[in-house]
């Protein structure tokens, strides 16, 4: 075995004809590769490199080195790797499987896991948090009938695993755009196999001490999720479709009539002229800009859908331009590849191509400025064709280089959303761009929703692990269609869905064509009253969610979290699928089964306060709770101070003059991030951060960062029944 540093942070180890490369990175990360692996369709962040702590010359055929004070790496003659923590092996990948099969190139990384191992991650898969025992193929797929965990591929292809094995958490990121095949200890109980349909081997290992450190390191590498507008945390209403102006105005009217908060209405494909992107059906929407303005006066923004496939129509400018420039996907004989989507025959542009991207950027900008549209919803961008998957040999030309679909497939949606992420920034606004398909790096440009679920109890249940797994996979803002997309729902399901997802980052009720109406007012007074009660609760939590959103975008932490993320030492949390945490302070345990009104709730160690009743519970155990149809369980960790808004019907930071700090416990801390909620001025330091502290009957606020002229005029402190109010000031100290 030979080894040499090709530069101070890059070690090359060779044995026979094999050559292994190790790049040591900050944040307890290491990049390992066997063959050169092209990465030009993926933009990873430059993570600082670091020196290996110690390296010993090979003895007994083993090269040993220390990556940190507690993590070591050993490499044997066959170039097998053994990662150890405090002398105990926890991850030993076998990399020697690069091979060519008849079908295609194939390389595989295998490793053994302990009997009690858990495997998390992989984004939107329809499965519980722990994906051990399942197999997947990560290649973007729209399978509209996916109803459970039997479907190996879904819309998103996010190649991140968080593993707990041999008493240690570690993270793995596989950065190729080619399809990965995962066998998560399905074929063999204690063996994980990750195969790539290509002939190179390459992975990042994150070996930090807990899920927080590991996931932050991964997020730093793939790029933190972009920082959202505060308004995006508000309630959103959608349907395929609000087909004309009258229907849209009716939604706003009903929301107002029933006194329900609303921030956005979404227009599905019927707003377009013949399903052509960036066009308007003038019969259905004679004056879309005026409609948008009228809604805006009521605090409601308008979001419009945009599909990946472009209608074949020589008279349609977008089609003509794509074909003229050769931006569309091509068959091997050089003709345009024609698929079928909503507009009928369609082409699929190579959106990542510079010229194509600039063209679509201009089109989108023209559209949103002409019609005063507030957000862009990107769909069918796996990309999907009703005629079946695009053949692997179809090519896309990206900046002078031809890419076969096999390589470009998983990069396609990111190329598409990148046309739009800067559309709003020219007007000094943060993007509102979301997508159905994506890969790990896409969160820099767009947030996500999880596509076409069904109005089924089972899908309500799965929404929790699905959104938490997206959160773990770097997608801070994600959500499912509240109430379910396909099929007809019912009153109880809608109510429980609202309660069950009430603090999930993206909260949008959406349903399919030909299904029963699913707006909260579609049922009865009781439904509306309960929906309103929880929407009001969500709006109270907006400053808490928004403060977290800022933290996530700057530190790569998570907004919504599985319990084990906050309590990694507590094994009881490892398989929890029906509870979730929001930041460190809130734990939610909804009912997700029909007819159920009593459930067991696991509370980790510590004291927990029922948010609604104030009752306290000792954690480290299960409690039983009765939850009638209008009740869901929300607990606050003792020692927390929640920042809250009150009375909002929509979010407009300029109009928010009161902030409430609600104290839980005798010694407590809270944080608030404040800015204008919409512009990019925060990048120039125009924001405030506050630290709120309560102890010995006194509450105090300290303003840590000053950069924004606050809109608050009044501060309320609340603790149990007690409440005091003071005029807004930067630093406060009061008895409470
Ligand atoms: C896709 C989307 C869905 C949308 C429909 C029509 O199925 O996932 O949300 O309503 O297309 O555009």
Quick overview:
By secondary structure, the protein is α+β, with helices and mostly antiparallel strands. It contains twelve helices and 48 strands.
How would you describe this protein?
This protein has 736 residues and is α+β, with helices and mostly antiparallel strands. The chain folds into 4 domains: 2-222, Immunoglobulin-like, CATH 2.60.40.1760; 235-307 and 360-383 and 405-550, TIM Barrel (Alpha-Beta Barrel); 560-637, Sandwich (Immunoglobulin-like); 652-735, Immunoglobulin-like, CATH 2.60.40.1180. Helices cover 18% and strands 31% of the residues. It is built from 12 helices and 48 strands. Strand 10 and strand 11 form a beta hairpin. The protein binds alpha-D-glucopyranose (GLC). Alpha-D-glucopyranose (GLC) binds at residues 240, 268-269, 305, 379, 436, 451-452, 510.
CATH architecture of the largest domain: Alpha-Beta Barrel
**Overall mean confidence score, pLDDT:** 96
In the CATH hierarchy, what is the superfamily of the largest domain? Glycosidases
Range of strand content: 25-35%
SSE arrangement:
Layout: E1 2-7, E2 10-15, E3 18-25, E4 29-33, E5 54-59, E6 62-66, E7 71-75, E8 81-85, E9 88-91, E10 99-100, E11 105-112, E12 118-121, E13 135-138, E14 160-165, E15 168-173, E16 180-184, E17 191-196, E18 202-206, H1 211-222, E19 236-237, H2 245-257, E20 264-267, H3 288-297, E21 301-307, E22 310-311, H4 317-325, E23 339-341, E24 344-347, H5 354-371, E25 375-379, E26 395-398, E27 401-404, H6 405-408, H7 412-417, E28 433-435, E29 447-449, H8 457-472, E30 478-479, E31 481-482, H9 491-500, E32 508-509, H10 525-540, H11 542-555, E33 560-561, H12 563-566, E34 580-582, E35 586-589, E36 598-603, E37 607-610, E38 616-618, E39 621-626, E40 633-637, E41 640-644, E42 658-664, E43 667-674, E44 688-695, E45 698-705, E46 714-719, E47 722-727, E48 732-735
Parallel strand pairs: 19-20, 19-32, 20-21, 21-25, 25-28, 28-29, 29-30, 31-32, 42-46
Antiparallel strand pairs: 1-2, 2-3, 3-4, 4-18, 5-6, 6-7, 7-8, 8-9, 10-11, 11-17, 12-14, 13-16, 14-15, 15-18, 16-17, 22-24, 23-24, 26-27, 33-34, 34-35, 35-40, 36-39, 37-38, 37-40, 41-42, 43-44, 44-45, 45-48, 46-47
Helix pairs in contact: 8-9, 9-10
The protein binds alpha-D-glucopyranose (GLC).
Alpha-D-glucopyranose binds next to loops.
């Amino acid at each position: 075995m030979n080894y040499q540093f090709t530069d101070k942070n890059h070690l090359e180890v060779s044995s026979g004809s094999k050559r292994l490369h190790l790049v040591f990175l900050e944040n307890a990360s290491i990049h390992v590769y066997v063959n050169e692996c092209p990465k030009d369709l993926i933009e990873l962040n430059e993570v600082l490199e670091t020196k290996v702590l110690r390296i010993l010359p090979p003895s007994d055929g083993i090269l040993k080195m220390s990556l940190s004070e507690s993590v070591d790496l050993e490499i044997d003659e066959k170039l097998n790797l053994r990662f150890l923590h405090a002398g105990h092996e926890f991850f030993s990948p076998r990399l020697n499987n690069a091979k060519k099969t008849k079908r295609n190139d194939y390389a595989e990384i295998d490793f053994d896991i302990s009997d009690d191992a858990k495997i998390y991650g992989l984004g939107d898969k329809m499965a519980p948090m722990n994906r051990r025992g399942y197999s997947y193929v990560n290649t973007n797929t729209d399978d509209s009938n996916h109803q459970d965990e039997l479907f190996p591929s879904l819309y998103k292809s996010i190649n991140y695993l968080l593993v707990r094995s041999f008493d240690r958490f570690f993270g793995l990121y596989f950065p190729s755009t080619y399809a990965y095949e995962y066998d998560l200890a399905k074929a063999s109980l204690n063996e994980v196999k990750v195969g790539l349909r290509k002939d190179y081997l390459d992975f990042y290992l994150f070996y930090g001490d807990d899920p927080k450190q590991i996931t932050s390191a991964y997020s730093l590498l793939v790029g933190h999720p972009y920082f959202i507008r505060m308004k995006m945390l508000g309630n959103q209403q959608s349907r395929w479709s609000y087909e004309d102006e009258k229907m849209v105005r009716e939604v706003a009217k009903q929301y107002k009539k029933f006194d329900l908060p609303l921030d956005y209405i979404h227009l599905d494909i019927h707003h377009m002229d013949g399903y052509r992107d960036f066009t308007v059906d003038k019969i259905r929407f004679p004056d879309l800009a005026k409609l948008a303005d009228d809604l805006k006066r009521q605090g409601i923004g308008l979001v419009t859908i945009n599909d990946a496939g472009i209608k074949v129509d020589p008279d349609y400018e977008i089609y003509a331009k794509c074909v003229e420039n050769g931006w569309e996907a091509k068959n091997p004989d050089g003709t345009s590849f024609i698929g079928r989507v909503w507009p009928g025959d369609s082409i699929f542009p190579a959106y990542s191509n510079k010229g194509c991207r600039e063209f679509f950027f201009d089109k989108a900008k023209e559209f949103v400025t002409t019609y005063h549209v507030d957000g862009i919803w990107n769909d069918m961008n796996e990309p999907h064709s009703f005629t079946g998957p695009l053949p692997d040999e179809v090519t896309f030309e990206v900046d002078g280089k031809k890419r076969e679909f096999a390589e470009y497939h998983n990069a396609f949606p990111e190329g598409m959303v990148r046309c739009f992420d800067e559309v709003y920034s020219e007007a000094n606004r943060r993007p509102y761009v979301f997508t159905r398909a994506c890969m790990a790096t896409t969160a820099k440009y767009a947030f996500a929703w999880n596509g076409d679920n069904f109005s089924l109890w089972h899908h309500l249940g799965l929404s929790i692990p699905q959104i938490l797994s997206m959160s773990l996979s770097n997608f801070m803002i994600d959500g499912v269609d509240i109430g379910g997309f396909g099929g007809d729902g019912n009153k109880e399901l809608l109510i429980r869905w609202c309660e069950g997802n009430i603090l999930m980052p993206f909260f949008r009720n959406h349903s399919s064509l030909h299904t029963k109406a699913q707006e909260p007012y579609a049922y009865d007074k009781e439904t509306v009253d309960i929906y309103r009660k929880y929407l009001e609760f969500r709006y109270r939590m907006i400053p808490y969610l928004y403060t977290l959103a800022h933290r996530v975008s700057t530190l790569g932490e998570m907004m919504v979290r599985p319990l084990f993320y906050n309590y990694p030492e507590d094994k009881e949390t490892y398989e929890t699928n029906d509870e979730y945490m929001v930041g460190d302070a809130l734990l939610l345990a909804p009912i997700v089964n029909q007819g159920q009104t009593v459930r067991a709730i696991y509370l980790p160690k510590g004291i927990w306060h029922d948010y609604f009743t104030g009752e306290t519970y000792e954690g480290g155990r299960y409690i039983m709770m009765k939850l009638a149809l209008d009740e869901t369980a929300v607990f606050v960790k003792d020692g927390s101070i929640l920042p809250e808004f009150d009375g909002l019907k929509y979010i407009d930071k300029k109009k928010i003059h009161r902030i409430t700090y609600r104290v839980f416990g005798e010694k407590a801390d809270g944080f608030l991030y404040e800015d204008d909620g919409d512009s990019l001025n925060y990048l120039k330091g125009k924001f405030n951060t506050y630290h709120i502290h309560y102890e010995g009957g006194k509450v105090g606020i300290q303003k840590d960062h000053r950069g924004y002229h606050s809109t608050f005029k009044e501060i309320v402190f609340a603790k149990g029944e007690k409440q005091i109010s003071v005029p807004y000031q930067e630093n406060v100290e009061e008895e409470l």
